[in-house]
Write a structure and sequence with these properties.
The complex is a heterodimer of chains A (174) and B (157).
Chain A (H helix, E strand, L loop, with lengths): L3 H11 L5 H13 L1 H20 L9 H25 L5 H35 L5 E3 L6 E5 L4 E6 L7 H8 L3
Antiparallel strand pairs in A: 2-3
Chain B lengths: L1 H31 L3 E11 L10 E2 L2 H8 L7 E12 L4 E7 L2 E9 L2 E8 L2 E9 L5 E8 L3 E9 L2
Antiparallel strand pairs in B: 1-3, 1-9, 2-3, 4-5, 5-6, 6-7, 8-9
The chains are: A mainly alpha (174), B alpha+beta (157).
């Protein structure tokens, strides 16, 4: 089993990129070693397949001239873009503010969402029966809550029947 | 140029709307942590159509409507006394509703109140609960001749 370096060297041999001495050495190995021969045949087949699918394009100019033309075109486009930025009028204060409106709007939306959540939690707390913390000093009392009307009743057994006389004075009932 | 500005203006309107909502909720949140305005009424519940005390007047329809949902058997309620209390956050107020009935209310913040009822010098009840705007707390008990006394506490603001 050949390592990756050897495989690359074999590929270079097949591409004709090796010096004559090395190429002769690889030719001998191909003739003697069936594994090298098999791999060589596989690489050659791949090369041929790639060559078939690669459409060869010929440029009607020399290599240097072709690439310098591309470079000039890029430079021209860069200069034109720079000129356009220079000639553009500066942004008005309104336009500058508008640039920050979208992110500010998003931030405000998050803020509102947070405040709504807090508001909902508070509302839930206010309407939840668990939040009704009755601390009664008199036994026998009970608490009733009507959620739809938002009213809570704490009914006390105090005062007892014998203390009705006191109630009269509390209520100023004749 | 006009077509480029149009979507930005739309976002401007959206932002202005969101800012408005922000301000409304911020103000409501701040108000919730501020002073509480409470209306405290001493009431008498009876099935009689008239009170023997000419000073007593029938409760307001809104109060009667609220009391109607409670599991009380009385058909009529009369107002004996009424006080409006404005209590700062964390502060408490004590008010005399009659000669022997005193109510003490503490603003615990975040719409929470602590209502203490003192009858004949003794604390009868101490009730702590959230009281959002428009909601009411009624502390009541038996009175002679199958009637009842009620302390009606409603948050006005």
């Amino acid at each position: 089993m050949m390592d990756e370096a050897k495989q690359l060297e074999l590929q270079a041999f097949l591409d004709g990129e090796l010096p004559p001495a090395k190429a002769a050495d690889w030719q001998r190995r191909m003739d003697a070693d069936p594994e090298v021969r098999a791999l060589g045949a596989q690489l050659k087949a791949s090369n041929e397949a790639l060559a078939i699918f690669e459409a060869e394009t010929r440029v009607p100019a020399s290599r240097d001239f072709y690439w310098s033309g591309i470079r000039r075109q890029i430079e021209l486009l860069e200069k034109a873009s720079a000129r356009r930025h220079e000639t553009e009028p500066p942004l008005s204060w309104l336009a500058r503010i508008r640039q920050y409106l979208v992110p500010a709007g998003v931030a405000a939306a998050f803020l509102i969402a947070g405040m709504l959540a807090t508001h909902q939690v508070r509302m839930a707390e206010s309407g939840h029966p668990v939040r009704l913390e009755a601390s009664l000093t008199s036994p026998g009392s009970f608490t009733y809550r009507d959620f739809s009307s938002g009213i809570t009743l704490v009914w006390l057994s105090y005062p007892a029947e014998k203390e009705f006389a006191e109630i009269d004075s509390i209520l100023n009932i004749p | 140029m006009k077509s480029e500005l149009a979507p930005v203006s739309f976002w401007g309107l959206v932002f202005a709307g969101l800012l408005g909502f922000c301000l409304v909720f911020a103000s409501s949140a701040l108000a919730a942590d501020g002073a509480l305005k409470l209306e405290v009424q001493l009431l008498w519940g009876t099935n009689d159509s008239k009170s023997p005390d000419p000073k007593h007047k029938p409760v307001e329809p809104e109060v009667k409507k609220k009391l109607a949902v409670l599991p009380l058997k009385f058909s009529n309620y009369f107002e004996v006394n009424r006080k409006v209390l404005e209590i700062a956050n964390g502060a408490s107020r004590k008010e005399e509703l009659s000669d022997k009935c005193i109510v003490e209310i503490k603003n615990c913040g975040r719409s929470k109140v602590e209502v203490s009822l003192i009858g004949a010098g003794q604390q009868v009840v101490k009730q702590s609960q959230n009281l959002p705007k428009g909601e009411a707390l009624v502390v009541a008990g038996n009175a002679p001749n199958a009637t009842a006394w009620l302390v009606f506490v409603k948050r006005v603001d």
